[in-house]
Design brief:
Elements lengths: L38 H4 L6 H4 L5 E5 L4 E6 L9 H20 L4 E6 L10 H8 L5 H5 L2 H9 L17 E3 H5 L9 E2 L11 E2 L2 E6 L6 E6 L11 E5 L2 E3 L4 E3 H4 L6 E2 L2 E2 L24 H6 L5 H7 L7 H6 L3 H22 L7 H18 L5 H5 L4 H8 L16 H13 L4 H11 L15 E4 L10 E4 L21 E3 H6 L2
Parallel strand pairs: 2-3
Antiparallel strand pairs: 1-2, 3-7, 4-7, 5-6, 8-9, 10-11, 12-13, 14-15, 15-16
GO biological process, one term: base-excision repair
InterPro entries: AP_endonuc_1, AP_endonuclease_F1_CS, Endo/exonu/phosph_ase_sf, Endo/exonuclease/phosphatase, Znf_GRF
Keywords: Hydrolase, Magnesium, Manganese, Metal-binding, Nucleus, Zinc, Zinc-finger
Length: 499
C-alpha cells in the first residue's frame, strides 16, 4: 500500500490515542493552502480550533489543479459529541467555501456520516412508512441542513435558517439521480448488508466548475471486507484547464514531472512532504516486486570474494571438520587400546564396554560420510532389525535388568482392568448430561437460531436470546413468509427451562 509503483499514498496517523495533527499554518502565504476560517467565523464555534483539529479527521492536499480534502466526520452515536460534530461540520463548510472564494477548485471525499435525502437512508424510509418520522423532521436535523446547503440539489428542511449558495456537486447522485438502494454503509451487528438495509454516507464531492471533468461515478457494493463499500469517480484523461486542453497527469503533479501525460522525473524525487514514501519506516526500502526481481549472486563470485586460507599446516589441521577430528582420535587410540586389551585376561573383560566401543567406531564411520539428511531421520526401521531386537535374549543375571512379575499377578491385573471397563449405557447417559443442548429452530425457516446479547440499557441488559439466523430484509423488519429474518425470538433462560 505504500510502495505501489506509479502511485503515491498519504496517511493520517495520530501520535496519541485521541488523535493529533501537524499544523502547517506557520508557512509563508505563498506556501499555504489557504482558505482558513477568519476570526468572525471562528466565533460561531463553541470549541476552539485546536480541539476541532485534534483528532486527525481531515487530510488536505493541494495539487496544481485542485485542493483535495479527505474527511472522516464524527458520527452521531453519542449525544455528548453532538456539539463537537456540529462544530466540525461547520468548520469544514467554512474551509470549503473560503477555498472556492479565492478561486481554487475543491474535491471533498470520505465518510461524512450524513445522509442527504430520504432516498439515501433505509431507516428513514421505514420510519416514515410507519409514521414515526416525517420528511420535514428528517431534513431539519442540523448536520443534514448544513450538508444540503453545501451540496447542489440538497433539499431544504426548515426555512428559518439563513440559506447559503450551494457550491459542491454530489457526483454519485449526479450520475444516478433516481437510483434507490445506493447505500454505502450497513450495520454489521444486525447483519444488514445482505438485505441492503443501510445508508449512503460516503461521498465524492467537487466544486461546480469541475463537473465536466468527470465521466462516471458509482459505488462498489459488491466489494466486501468492511461495513462500508468504496465510492469512486473517474476523471477524464484530458480536461479543460486555463482555456486549454491539458492532460490530467500534467496538472495534478508539480511542473516538469509529466509532459503530455508522460512521466519525465522519478517518483521519489517529486514526493510531497506528507507522502508515505518518505515515512522513515519505508524510505529507501525496496518493494516486494523489486526483491523478487533481484538476481542472486552466483556461488563462483562468492568464492572469489572469500579470504585466502592460511598456509600453516597446524591452521589447516584446525580447520578440519569435527567428524574428521573424531575419526583421527579413534584411529590414533586404536593401536594402544588393542595392545592393552591383548595383555588383559579374557575373563576380566566385560562385554558391555566392547559393544560400546564397537558402536562408537560404527558411529564414527557413519559421521565420516557427511551430515545425515532430514529424510534419513524420517525413514522407518526395517522389519529385519525389529525382529532381531525382539529375539534378543536378556539374562536375569545382568545387573541392568529388572525381573518382571510372575504370571499369576499378571492374570490378576488383567482381571481388574476388565472389571473397570465402563458400561456403554452409563457412558451414553453421562455424555448426554454434559452435551450442550441443541439450539431452537426458527418458526419461519426451521433453521438453527443464533444467540445474541442485549446491550440496550434497561432491566434486560446482558440477557441472551435466540433469533432467526437470516439477515434483515430491505424493510428492516422481521417478515413472515419471506427469505429474510422471521419474527422468532426466544430468551435463552426460557429455552433452558424447557429441558
Amino acid at each position: 500500500m505504500v510502495l505501489v509503483p506509479g502511485w503515491d499514498c498519504f496517511f493520517s496517523l495520530p501520535k496519541q490515542k485521541k488523535g493529533s495533527t501537524t499544523p502547517y499554518r506557520e508557512l509563508s502565504k505563498d506556501d499555504q493552502i489557504g482558505g482558513y476560517p477568519n476570526f468572525e467565523q471562528l466565533e460561531l464555534l463553541s470549541f476552539d480550533p485546536k480541539t476541532i483539529d485534534s483528532e486527525g479527521r481531515c487530510v488536505i492536499l493541494e495539487f496544481p489543479a485542485f485542493v483535495l480534502l479527505g474527511v472522516y466526520c464524527p458520527a452521531n452515536r453519542d449525544e455528548n459529541r453532538d456539539a463537537f460534530r456540529s462544530d466540525f461540520l461547520n468548520a469544514l463548510d467554512m474551509r470549503v467555501r473560503n477555498l472556492i472564494a479565492i478561486g481554487k477548485r475543491v474535491i471533498v471525499m470520505g465518510d461524512l456520516n450524513v445522509s442527504s435525502d430520504i432516498l439515501d437512508s433505509a431507516h428513514a424510509i421505514e420510519a416514515i412508512r410507519k409514521c414515526k418520522l416525517t420528511e420535514l423532521e428528517f431534513l431539519s436535523s442540523p448536520p443534514r441542513l448544513l450538508f444540503n446547503q453545501l451540496v447542489k440539489g440538497g433539499k431544504p428542511g426548515t426555512h428559518e435558517i439563513e440559506q447559503k449558495p450551494q457550491v459542491l456537486l454530489d457526483l454519485c447522485r449526479n450520475f444516478h439521480p433516481n437510483r434507490q438502494g445506493m447505500y454505502t454503509c450497513w450495520e454489521q451487528r444486525i447483519n444488514a448488508r445482505p438485505g441492503n438495509y443501510g445508508a449512503r454516507i460516503d461521498y465524492v464531492l467537487c466544486s461546480m466548475d469541475m463537473e465536466d471533468w468527470f465521466v462516471w461515478s458509482d459505488i462498489q457494493e459488491g466489494l466486501m471486507g468492511s461495513d462500508h463499500c468504496p465510492v469512486y469517480a473517474l476523471i477524464k484523461d484530458t480536461v479543460r484547464y486555463r482555456d486549454a486542453d491539458r492532460s490530467i497527469w500534467d496538472i495534478v503533479n508539480p511542473p516538469g514531472v509529466f509532459h503530455a501525460g508522460l512521466r519525465k522525473q522519478p517518483a521519489i524525487l517529486t514526493s510531497l512532504p506528507l507522502s508515505g514514501r518518505l515515512i522513515p519506516e519505508f524510505h529507501r526500502r525496496r518493494s516486494l516486486k523489486e526483491m523478487f526481481q533481484a538476481k542472486s549472486t552466483p556461488a563462483s563470485e562468492l568464492m572469489g570474494r572469500a579470504p585466502d586460507l592460511p598456509h600453516n599446516p597446524r591452521s589447516l589441521q584446525q580447520l578440519k571438520s569435527p567428524d574428521s577430528a573424531w575419526n583421527d582420535g579413534v584411529k590414533g587410540a586404536s593401536t594402544a587400546d588393542y595392545q592393552t586389551a591383548k595383555r588383559t585376561p579374557a575373563n576380566k573383560i566385560s562385554p558391555r564396554p566392547v559393544k560400546r566401543s564397537r558402536k562408537l567406531v560404527d558411529t564414527s564411520s557413519n559421521l565420516s560420510k557427511g551430515q545425515q539428511t532430514l529424510a534419513h531421520f524420517m525413514e522407518q526401521i526395517p522389519p529385519t532389525q525389529i525382529s532381531k531386537a525382539a529375539n534378543y535374549d536378556v539374562t536375569l543375571n545382568d545387573p541392568g535388568c529388572v525381573p518382571l512379575a510372575n504370571k499369576s499377578s499378571f492374570k490378576e491385573r488383567r482381571t481388574i482392568s476388565t472389571e473397570n471397563t465402563p458400561d456403554p449405557a452409563a457412558k451414553e447417559s453421562w455424555a448426554k448430561l454434559f452435551t450442550r443442548k441443541a439450539p431452537p429452530r426458527c418458526e419461519g425457516h426451521n433453521e438453527p437460531c443464533i444467540v445474541l446479547v442485549t446491550k440496550k440499557a434497561g432491566p434486560n441488559c446482558g440477557r441472551s436470546f435466540w433469533i432467526c439466523p437470516r439477515p434483515l430484509g430491505p424493510s428492516g423488519d422481521k417478515e413472515i413468509g419471506t427469505p429474510w429474518r422471521c419474527p422468532t425470538f426466544i430468551w435463552c433462560s426460557d429455552w433452558k427451562s424447557q429441558e
